[in-house]
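Meet today's protein:

…
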Amino acid sequence: MSAPTAPTRAAELITQLADELVGQITEEVRGRLSHELNVLVAQAEQPTPEQPAPSTSATWMTVAEAAAHARRGDATIRRALSAYVASRGKRGLRGSQQAANCSWRIQRSDLEAWMAGETPKKRRPS
């Protein structure tokens, strides 16, 4: 049997070095991923401070606040507001706008009545 030629020996060394590098890189990545996973698990296990509850004393709420209070989506609240306008106050959720395309404001009592399935009550003029 003849001795390996120089190009064959070089190819074997390159393959051996590549295998060693792949092994080292794999171990390095595995170690880093394991560390990151441990950090994430530790963060997930730590108690998080409670987010402050929305103020229950506020009389007027935005659409987002009303949606959070009712545990519904913003779109649902907006549809109910539109239904109130379209039905001229016979159904839906009563709200107030300064002008068209302005943000809505909803009274907590109106939202809770809507959530209970009650029909909107007419406001007495002040």
User: Anything to note?
Assistant: The beta strands are 60-61, 106-107. The chain has four helices and two strands.
